[in-house]
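Lab notebook, bench 4. The sequencing result for the construct came back, and we need a structural model before the next group meeting so we can plan mutations. Quick request posted to the team channel:

Model the 3D structure of this chain.
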Amino acid sequence: MKYLGSDQNFLGLENERNYNFSSSAVVIQSLPYEHSSSCITGSSKGPKAIISASHFVEFYDEELDKETCFEKGICTLPITDFEGIVNEAAMNIIEKQTANLLAENKFIVSFGAEHTISYGIIKAFNNKFKDISVLQIDAHSDLRSAYQGSKWSHASVMARVHELGIPLTQIGIRAQCKEETELIKKSKNIHTFYNHQLYNNIEWMQKAVDTLQDDVYISIDADGFDPAIMPAVGTAEPGGLKWQESIEFFKLVFAQKNVLGFDIVECAPKEGEILTEFNLAKLAYKLIGLKYIKK
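Done. Here's the predicted structure in token form:
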């Protein structure tokens, strides 16, 4: 299995025993698929930017009191090539690649471009694990049956997931069309926690966790967070999760559920800025650490 060395891997790990495929519990796949961006383009540069920014993230997590990268190993795979491949064909490639990694019993972290990539990943997880649920952090519901004539739009990814019969819990939603609202109201498989419902109400965290199955896959759109901490995104919306409240929520999720893997998507880097990609790299490392806290 090919993997990237210290100049290109997540965190810039220098000792090969900490990043080779065979000895690493965690594997990172970069999926720069961007075909349906409808506002700001550039998310195809997101995966590489997050990995580059991760070289400035400290190995030691003071909250967890550990250096997870040395304890578990994090392998970074070469960037997946989508040249000339779009829509369902691209999803098939992602599904197959993810399934191969699952067969190796790896904890899979995926950095994507547009949110559409999550469908291929989730489909692979759904084929291996029974009764999973998806936890979606996002400003948008992404539940349109199609957008701009395409059922494979980033704005339709969770509609495709919903068609698989997978329970979906959405956090931070603050922009949707009437079609999406009506689907949420009639579906027993969609649990939406709107952004305006989160403020001055910490009870939402446990209520959200309670909607999840025992096995959970997490899909994180960078625009789910406050633009003050994640400004470089494809479709920004005012409001969103703050840093510490999101960490507290993820701590609950990892403590009470079996998180199978996660993805981070929709980072559209801005020249001369690093805040978004650095914060996403730091978030990814935090979640990896939470996965391996001894219970």
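The domain at 10-291 is CATH 3.40.800.10 (Arginase; Chain A).
Will bring this to the meeting.
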